[in-house]
Amino acid sequence: MTTSPERAIDKPLTSSSIWTADSIKLTIVTTLLRICTQVHITSMPLFFLHLGGSHALAGLSMTFFTLAALLTRPLIGITLDTYGRKPILLWGVVVYTITTMLYGFVAFIPALIFLRIMHGISFSASSTATSTMATDILPENKMTQGSHILDSSER
Length: 155
Hints:
single chain; mainly alpha
């Protein structure tokens, strides 16, 4: 027996404004996560090379991340509807933060590959949750405008 999914907000929308406290918090979380992701995209191949990996393996560093994110996204979507948006976002942010901090302690390539996979899964959870939460908190008549603003914070 399933219950209805937990919305990102507890009460129905009464405002037609895009800029509510919830949307501002969501934009801040999204922006910070994407800044961190952009730093990893540019620095991770160099880190693979620093640890003695080949140029091909350094190039594959993004592939591990991307495949993990891509393959887990459908499952993340199901868990968002089953367990709610906030718990999945929180899990994604916590795992994302932990994997980011663990990069500094990695000394060999297999551990780095494992962290890239975990980082991809947590990225998938956090990005899917924030996008879903945006549709929950944006007023229906401002959905397109609000989605574009949130999308801008992701780039």
